[in-house]
Design brief:
492 residues; alpha+beta; Pdz3 Domain; 7-stranded antiparallel sheet; 28 strands; 35% strand
Length: 492
């Protein structure tokens, strides 16, 4: 690796100042030895810092470096960057790849639509059984043809991938060895924000690197990762740390470092780890069945806020709002509808969308669940049998024929048959102009208005009627670029 910054050197003045302070400190100790010795335990006690050095020394031998090699299919048409970038580490430079493909094409002529390119990556993992079972991230071993595991004592083993689950980003490896050091896994429990944690891994290939931070948040759901509520931490995690353990002050692994939020490719204070209980379930499924089975309800969810709760006449902000229901899925067969709010599952309150996602994901395909829901201002109970979880809106700037919705500030018109086919919906209204309350809420021309406060709308009159004359807010279900979302609109 090439370092671009020059080493820092100490200047003479700071050294002299430090030496003078040291002499003063020695003189104070000589004059007041009793006071100094009495103050030391107080200072140590006041610091309250855990012994991270002992924790690192005990667990580091069970943390491994993982090197992966193989080939990957990439597209030679369009933007190659999306094809070659590998999650948060081991990524090839998209600009360099485009330049390579461009030079190749200039020299040798046309390229096929797809090419097989060599791939190398590095990550981390940790040993959970003395006979060689290792946990890591699924994306660490993605497209791997050869996996090499290196221990801190320099021993190296070729590993077999027993199974990987992309949904939870967990993979299980096996090496042919015995009497290996193992980590201690934490039992599921209450994680506290601000609790000290330690990460061990191989960032940028620097093996057995230790970083320290605190838990920044728990049960953090990321876009596209609804099946996992991550542990967020500010312990530095960089490319190559993926798959390594996140450890508490008792020396127990509480999570697997999986993702970072970054605008530069490096650590920016936001790291995310898969909770160890999720990893343990995936490990058990892979070891017993070779794959992970997830239960699936078949819904898209949205978090409630104050305006949405008022719009649906809820007294509190507890529950998970159903935005869309998969046709023919478990939720559809149970009778769930867009605009329903799930309040409880099998008698357990659902606080938010994380709660619902976790309860479904921890269930088994075929399980029957009882759901308490809120619909049109009343509570109901529905029953669902969980499954095995294995269009762009038409934009039109011609306002002719559009009808106004008085309180919402929209000009809308019914969809034409070809627009219904392109957008994939059978009913709704095309928004052609936005002003007033709707504009303040962020609606845009070209959005499709599907429902108001859970009531489907096909005409401007229906939209006006659904809002009413005394409502303070309304929840509008819209579709934009093929995605559905409820938009809360404050009317007064």
């Amino acid at each position: 690796m090439t370092f671009t910054s020059a080493p820092r050197h100490c200047s003479a003045a700071p050294i002299a100042a430090a030496f003078t302070l040291a002499l003063v400190g020695i003189a104070v100790l000589a004059l007041c030895p009793g006071q100094a010795s009495a103050a030391s335990p107080v200072a140590a006690e006041a610091s309250g810092l855990p012994d991270m050095a002992s924790i690192a020394a005990r667990l580091a031998p069970a943390v491994v470096n993982i090197s992966v090699s193989g080939t990957r299919t990439i597209s030679t048409v369009g933007d190659a960057a999306d094809e070659v970038e590998d999650e948060d580490f081991g990524a090839q430079d998209p600009d360099a790849m485009r330049d390579f493909l461009r030079r190749f094409q200039q020299r040798f002529g046309g390229l096929p639509p797809q090419m097989r390119m060599p791939m190398r990556a590095e990550g981390s993992g940790f040993i959970v059984r003395a006979d060689g079972v290792i946990l890591t991230n699924a994306h660490v071993v993605s497209d791997a043809e050869e996996v090499l595991v290196k221990l801190t004592d320099r021993r190296e083993f070729r590993a077999k991938v027993l199974g990987a689950d992309k949904l939870t980003d967990i993979a299980v490896l096996k090496v042919d060895a015995d009497n290996l050091p193992v980590v201690s896994l934490a039992t599921p429990g209450h994680l506290r924000v601000g609790e000290w944690v330690l990460a061990i891994g191989s960032p940028f290939g620097f093996e057995s690197s230790v970083t320290v931070g605190v838990i920044s948040a728990t049960r953090r759901v990321l876009p596209g990762d609804g099946a996992v509520s991550f542990i967020q931490t500010d312990a530095a995690v960089n490319p190559g740390n993926s798959g390594g353990p996140l450890i508490n002050v008792r020396g127990e692994v509480i999570g697997i470092n999986s993702q970072i939020f970054t605008a530069t490719g490096g650590f920016q204070g936001l790291s995310f780890a898969v909770p160890i209980e999720v990893a343990k379930r995936a490990e058990q499924d892979i070891l017993t069945a070779g794959e992970v089975h997830h239960a699936k309800l078949g819904v898209k969810l949205q978090q409630l806020d104050q305006t949405l709760a008022e719009s649906f006449k809820l007294d509190n902000l507890r529950g998970a709002l159903i935005v869309d229901v998969k046709k023919g899925g478990a939720a559809d067969r149970a009778g769930l509808q867009s605009g329903d709010i799930v309040l409880a599952i099998d008698g357990h309150p659902v606080e938010d969308i994380q709660d619902l996602s976790e309860r479904v994901d921890t269930a088994t395909a075929g399980d029957r669940i009882d759901m308490s829901i809120w619909r049109h201002g009343q509570s109901q109970t529905l029953h669902a049998e969980l499954e095995d979880g294995r269009v762009r809106a038409v934009q039109n700037t011609d306002f002719e024929g559009a009808e106004p919705t008085i309180r919402l500030g929209l000009a809308v018109r019914p969809l034409q048959p070809d627009e219904k086919r392109q957008s994939g919906i059978s009913a709704g209204l095309l928004i052609e102009h936005v002003t007033g309350a709707a504009a303040r809420a962020g609606l845009q021309p070209g959005d499709l208005l599907l429902a108001v406060d859970g009531q489907p709308v096909n005409t401007a009159d229906q939209a006006n009627s659904a809002v009413g004359s005394s409502a303070k807010s309304a929840a509008l279900l819209i579709q934009r670029s093929g995605q559905r979302i409820y938009v809360p609109v404050r009317l007064i």
